[in-house]
Amino acid sequence: MTSIFFRILAIFSLLFPNYGLLTSSFLIPGRVLTSTSQTIPSVYSGISGVGVWLGACAEANNDDSACSSATTKAKIDNKAMAFLRKIGKVGGTKVDFTNAIGVDEGSGGAKISSNAGKWDHDMAIKKAMHAYWSCVDSGTIDDLSETFPFTSSGTQWAGVTDGIMGGSSSGSLVREEFQGRISNVLRANVKLEEYQGFVQMVTDLALDHSVSSTVDATKFDGIEFDIYYSGDASREIFNLHLKDSNCVRQFSSYRAKFELPRRQWTTVRLPWSKFEGFGWGAVENLLDHSALRRIGLVAIGKEMDVNLALSSIRFMQD
Question: Residues of 188-214 as b/e, b for ≥16 C-beta within 10 angstroms?
Fold first, then answer.
């Protein structure tokens, strides 16, 4: 009976791989499967479809009869290694977009950066969508409590440069402890050349785009965040960019400037009135707080080597 139960679970997990994400706390007991290049503890069972399958195979076949062929072991090893990379046990969590191409907040908001797939192998497993609390319900866009690149409201951080415009700005985005706080750290080299160079860290605000691509933040008064700047200048000016439903063009956004002193944590508060429209769709309209789509911290318009560390970002209420 036990063997039948685990066989059913194995089939179910292969047919419905997302089920593992919904039941990440359910562990399937099993022995350790060993191949020539990797040892996979069954403690990972139940965290993903691959883990369930491995645990079931071990439990249902005490003599390893079903898992003994070289082909099957190779498949187990490949899937297991992919799984370990996915949960961060293999590989790092650094997003390097030195050669990325992108546009300022992306084309119409559908895609953040054209090389997003380059760091898919470093992503931790995302929780089920219903496990996250919307940023407009909690007021928190990201308190950095989740595994990078996910925000605490379930969306994802990414990096964007001016590459698609022919620019050569570059940067990297990494989650690390920075000056005593867990932070998203944007290390950027902004170059102007013929264009207005920029590098930014950016995330969508809406979690479930099948329901809505925007969020209603009318009960709030602006954006507030904790940030640290280190660079050559004693003080430096940066931008916070918002996109709403009016920003259907690549370069349209609502922008607010803020100044940071060097080498100290600063809490920046930007009321809605600070944001000015830039580009088609935005210059004709005021910022629509009821239909916010994306937010980005931007180093723009000046050649600089800079580190920007973000430890928290949230909606502001006066």
Answer: bbbbbeeebbbbbbbbbbbbeeeeebb
User: Which distant-in-sequence residues (6+ apart) come within 8 Å of 233 by Cβ?
Assistant: 262, 304
Task: Kindly tell me if the per-residue pLDDT of 48 is higher than 90.
Answer: no
What amino acid is encoded at 167 in this protein?
Answer: G
Rg (the chain; Cα; Å): 23
DSSP state of 186: E
Mean pLDDT of 44-60: 33
Which is more confident, 262 or 39? Answer: 262
DSSP bridge partners of 48: 45
Q: Distance of CA 70 to CAs 11, 31, 73, 82, 87, Å? A: 21, 19, 5, 18, 26
223: phi > 0 → left, psi -120 to 50 → alpha, else beta; which? beta
**pLDDT tier for residue 26 given thresholds of 50, 70 and 90:** very low
Helix axes 70-86, 49-60, angle to 10 degrees: 140
Residue 100 near residue 160, CB atoms below 8 Å: yes
Residue 130, Cβ density class (10 Å: 0-12 exposed, 13-18 middle, ≥19 buried): exposed
- pLDDT the model gives residue 249: 86
**Please, what are the domains in the chain?**
2-86 (no CATH), 95-316 (2.60.120.430)
The pTM of the full predicted model, rounded to 2 decimals, is: 0.65
